[in-house]
Structures are given as structure tokens and as C-alpha cells.
Write a structure and sequence with these properties.
The structure is a homodimer of 104-residue chains.
Chain A (H helix, E strand, L loop, with lengths): L13 H9 L4 H9 L5 H7 L5 H13 L3 E6 L5 E6 L1 H14 L4
Antiparallel strand pairs in A: 1-2
The structure holds a DNA duplex (30 and 30 nucleotides).
Protein name (chains A, B): Transcriptional regulator, HxlR family
Organism (chains A, B): Pontibacter indicus
GO molecular function (chains A, B): DNA binding
DNA sequence: GTTGGTAGTCATGTTTTTTTGACTAATTGA
DNA sequence: TCAATTAGTCAAAAAAACATGACTACCAAC
């Protein structure tokens, strides 16, 4: 046992956690698209040029684990899966907006 | 020439830029320490357990290039270098605070 | 003139993230 | 039954980020 193997939460920097949860090549864009309503796997692939199945799948999974997105099986005609902003995700919108409003 | 080789600004996601500028293993913590006043290379190394010269140097350089920090040679007794929040850096504080206020 | 503090760079190696391409599996429509 | 759409998984490779250790260079004190 080492002297300090924290689960690597933000040891001293509260902003670190939320930054990590939104960081990565595709998460910001996925979050942004989710602002306009539920997003779907294949649709995201088409909307994110240069993306790929693996990366989008990983981003969705991690954002779900971070409780930013909620995964729902929609029992409709083509039977598909939707990812929607969770309550926490909704709460993050203000943070996201403050970043959007900040233009270099 | 490809159809779209942007300098990879935020092609469609305004938040992406600011997220990238604060992302990384050490930048959030450096930013946070810079809130309390000018920071210095060796001091940061001591204050950030597990960090190393290379990583801190890179973080400082990138944050300087992103115009978050301003590098100044202080013409005093021991003659040293200080990194201070730029105007843009100051403007980012509100964004940072909104992240700090957001507790999981 | 040697030690110690300032602030780094450089080459290399390891680790993490991202991409690629093949493959799976259920459902729907013709 | 065949083809397309849904939503993925898996192994491997490539790329990016991060760490290690040696080295540089300036200045001041002893």
C-alpha cells in the first residue's frame, strides 16, 4: 500500500473533476448536441466527422458512468437507444454556457 | 487540400477551445494556484506532488501560449520568473468558479 | 571554486487516448 | 431470405500525453 492512492478525485482542485468529465476529443461536441435533445449512436457518428464507433461508444459510456447522460431504450417502431442529459447533465449546462460565452 | 483542414479551432463547439486550454494533468491545479497570486516554476514543482519539470514546463508554456498566463522576469534580489494570470486568465476565473461550485 | 538555488532543455521510455478494421447481434422491410 | 439499419464489441495499431534522468546555464553565497 502506497502512502496515497486516492481514487484520484480532485485532491485539491474542485474544478478538476468536472474538467475531466467533459474532456476528450468528442465529449464536448456530444454534450453540445445533447443540449438540443436526445442523441443517438449512429446519428452522432454521422454528425461528428472524423469520429468512429469505438470513440463515440467510449465517450457515451463514460458520460453515462459520470451520470451526465442517461441511456434509454425507446420502445418504438424502429426500437432504438437514446442518450439524454441527466439532471446532473442539466446542471452542467450553466458551466458549459459560461465556457461558450467565453470567446478567445 | 482536403475539404476541411481547419486549424482545429472549435469547428462547431465553442466550449471545446476553453476546455482544451484547461485540460491536462496539471493545468487545472496550476490555474488554481495562480488565482492566489503569481506562481513560479520551482515552487509549483514543490506544490504539485507527483509532478515533474518537463510536465510543469510544458503546462506553463502552453498556458502562456494560450494567453492564460503571462511570463515575467522579476528584476529583484534572486532574479526570478513569475507567471501571472493574464486579462484573459482573469476572465476565465468565472468559468473556473462555476466548475468549482459544481460538486458531484 | 564548490555548493545551492533559480529555470529550464533534451532524449528516451512508458502510459493513456484515439483510431482502424473486422466482427456480432437484434430488428425491420422487401 | 436477403439487405439495411439499429447499436454496439474486440484486438491491434497509431498517436498523443506524461514521466524519467541527465544535462545546461546563470547567479549568489560561502
Amino acid at each position: 500500500m502506497t502512502t496515497n492512492n486516492l481514487p484520484q478525485e480532485e485532491a485539491s482542485c474542485p474544478a478538476e473533476g468536472i474538467l475531466k468529465q467533459l474532456s476528450g476529443k468528442w465529449k464536448p461536441q456530444i454534450f453540445r448536441l445533447a443540449l438540443d435533445g436526445p442523441v443517438r449512436f449512429n446519428s452522432l457518428l454521422r454528425q461528428l466527422p472524423g469520429s468512429n464507433k469505438q470513440s463515440v461508444a467510449t465517450a457515451l459510456k463514460e458520460m453515462e458512468e459520470a451520470d451526465i447522460l442517461v441511456k434509454t431504450v425507446v420502445q418504438e417502431k424502429p426500437l432504438h437507444i437514446e442518450y439524454t442529459l441527466s439532471e446532473k447533465g442539466q446542471a452542467m449546462v450553466s458551466v458549459f454556457r459560461s465556457m461558450e460565452g467565453f470567446l478567445n
